[in-house]
Amino acid sequence: MWYLAFDTSTQVLSVALGNDESVVAEYTTNIKRDHSSRLMPAIESLMKEANIATKDLSGIIVGKGPGSYTGLRIGVSTAKSMAWALKIPLAGVSSLSLIARTGKYFGGLIVPLIDARRGQVYTGLYGMQNEQWTSMEQDRIVLMKDWLEHLQANYTGYKLLFVSTDIELYREMIESAFDSEKYKIAKMASQYSRSGELLELGIPMLDNNQIQESKSFAPEYLRLAEAEHNWLKQQSKL
Fold this sequence. Notes:
CATH topology of the largest domain: Nucleotidyltransferase, domain 5
Helix content: 25-40%
CATH architecture of the largest domain: 2-Layer Sandwich
Order of helices and strands: EEEHEHEHEEEHEHEHH
Strand content: 25-35%
Number of helices: 7
């Protein structure tokens, strides 16, 4: 069976095609360009290269957030439309879990970060437990300062790996918060989410019927988009 996976929750655009045994094709870019004009051409090109038709697909897997409001809306709406049109199941995977997967062979815990502005980050805590990929802390939006204090207080016995394409925004804070032997910052090539990992996370969900209803499925923003927040603020003044 063939599966299509893609994530548009950050500046990174990643698309992958595979089956239960392997990732057959993958396309990943880190370019400041609108995903709306690039996602479908990337999907079409990848499927053409792999000689797979849409009718051959058995499921869709998408990064469900948190992350960029616009990026998530594009990715999730595309996934919903394809799943509905093809009458195939849809699985949504945490975009933070996907980012963290680049450090799955790290010996400690992985801290994925997405900048949420105003000193805040979307983040969580992941790692391997009993050979199972595990979420150690619920995904959240939090002030980076408070998150680092939480990690300091509760995970002193672990080494932490910070993974993010936004890492330079918070490098100094991380370096100031921990002794050098207590943390590591992922190398450049390991900071990007890859949809090959999305296949690995999502296929078991489809196999176990952990699927989304294509009509009602919505991204996990974790907060209102800035435009919505400003609109509600204006309404409260009326």
